[in-house]
Amino acid sequence: MFKKFSNEEVKDKSKIKSSQQRAIRQAIQDQYPSLDPYFENVMPKKSEIQLAKCEGKINLVMIDGEPVFYNVRDGPYYPTLRVHHQYPFMMPTMRVDKGAIKFVLSGANIMCPGLTHKNVVEELANKPVDNNTPVAILAEGKEHALAIGHTQMSSQDIIQVNKGIGVNVVHHLNDGLWKTPKLD
Amino acid sequence: MPRRVRKKDSSDEENGSDEEVAQVAGKMEDANLDSRYPLKVLYCGACSCPPEYCAWMGPKSGEVTPECKAWLLANAPELAAKYGYSTEQEGVAAAASGGDAKEAEPKVKELPGGKKVKEPAKEVWLSSKQRQKRKFVCTVRGLELFGIKLPDACKIFKKKFSTGAAVTETADNKEEIEIQGDVKDDLVSVIVKEFKIDIKDIFFVDGAGPKLTKIPAAEESGTMAVGGK
């Protein structure tokens, strides 16, 4: 989604109404309940939220010019990887095998065999994830996420079908959004 | 009630945060305290990603670039040790890369810098850049290598595309022609016809520096170039 993304893709950047700010805050809070205790740190109440509307109906939620969350149309909010690195517990994670890293970092979606690789399948089995959920993608033996996506199949299906796209990647390390830590 | 609890949490966190963070920076894995969040994640100064992914950021996947290694060794020796970048290795790598660089750099520099070397590799580079939404400019580089006067070429482009075109100076003190509008594809046929330049010598160029990609125009739009204006 952010494969090519830069300041130029931003169509309109504006401060938004406080009512809308509240709505966005609420939506994100509802979506990531485990983030609750730290919510003040992630999105301080005093700071103003800016919304950047980008190519492809992407909305970037920014605080002090730093993209923090984003969504497409009215879809779920995803955190940027920098935020996820700070609060890795905020959303379910999935692990891919080492061989997949290269492809994920060039923007590929996560294929089922990468998730069911013998080195990582245990984690998949132990941490069931539903279909259509935002997840963070970790790599075998790594502690930080390398991509954010949402599942196309439940973890059970992934194990059973073991074919095709398991997780749709929306944001990955070193993509356009990663390279724009600050928008101006 | 819940609000109060939350407040308490955050205040606790604030109290402990400084020391905790300091500790956390050292050993991120085993601390299980709440106040370790937000995690202070170290990002490589050379490639901007967490150091554990440095290996995938270079041109060759699976190989950590010397820059990343050097940075990590300088800034987080513990982590560097964990990933097995020893100073010795680094020294060797640096020496090797330094040597390489010293040997390779003049070579490389000869290429773009000295026209003598570049002239045998006569190439025309075309690229287009988006300025605002749907507005583009195309740049043509390297025409002068074929003995073409840029102002003349400029005039021809102006007429052919009926748009503005100008000779501009690039950052590296060379001259290139800038044409308004996205005319990249038609450009090929015009250059071939007007200047009698072989299509093999024309490339579409994207990006800059190490990430530069070159696509031979003949492959990209063979039909267009032949069947064009």
From TrEMBL, chain A:
Q: Which GO terms describe its biological process?
A: formation of translation preinitiation complex
Write down the InterPro entries for this protein, in alphabetical order.
Answer: MCT-1/Tma20, Pre-PUA, PUA, PUA-like_sf, PUA_eIF2d-like, Uncharacterised_CHP00451
**Location in the cell:** Cytoplasm
The principal location of this protein is cytoplasm
Which residue windows does the record flag with biased composition (Basic and acidic residues)? 1-15
* Pfam families to which the protein is assigned, alphabetical: Pre-PUA (PF17832), PUA_elF2D (PF26292)
Q: What are the GO MF terms of this UniProt record? A: RNA binding
* Keywords, alphabetical: Cytoplasm
GO terms for CC? cytoplasm
Q: What protein am I looking at?
A: PUA domain-containing protein
Q: What organism does the UniProt record list as the source?
A: Guillardia theta (strain CCMP2712) (Cryptophyte)
TrEMBL record, chain B:
Q: Which InterPro entries match?
A: DENR/SUI1_TIF, DENR_C, DENR_N, SUI1, SUI1_dom_sf
Where do Acidic residues bias regions lie?
11-21
Report domain SUI1 positions. 124-195
Tell me the segments the record calls region Disordered.
1-27
> A single GO molecular function, which one?
translation initiation factor activity
Which CDD domains does UniProt cross-reference here?
DENR_C
Tell me one GO biological process term: translation reinitiation
The entry's family comment says: Belongs to the DENR family.
Q: What is this protein called?
A: SUI1 domain-containing protein
Say which species the protein is native to.
Guillardia theta (strain CCMP2712)
